[in-house]
Design a protein that fits this description.
Low-confidence stretches: none
Structural class: mainly alpha
Helix content: 55-70%
Largest sheet: none
Length: about 70
């Protein structure tokens, strides 16, 4: 798994949550509803990311790609 890619995915979701039209918008992470909103946006993005990573790993094993050497 590439940590840079998961970080990019998380940052993209967080930028969707942030207020892009003002410079003073802040999400109150002490608010349960704010945390729930962020979790609801992160869940599908992380699920998609993990499915892609797992598919790639399976493909590498099945197709014997990568650094495998006998």
């Amino acid at each position: 798994m590439n940590n840079t890619n998961i970080k990019k995915t998380i940052l993209e979701v967080l930028s969707q949550v942030a207020c892009n039209n003002t410079s003073y918008c802040q999400v109150n992470l002490q608010s349960e509803s704010a945390r729930e909103m962020i979790a609801n946006k992160l869940e599908p993005a992380i699920t998609k990311f993990m499915q892609e990573e797992i598919s790639e790993a399976i493909e590498q094993v099945v197709c014997c790609r990568g650094d495998f050497r006998e």
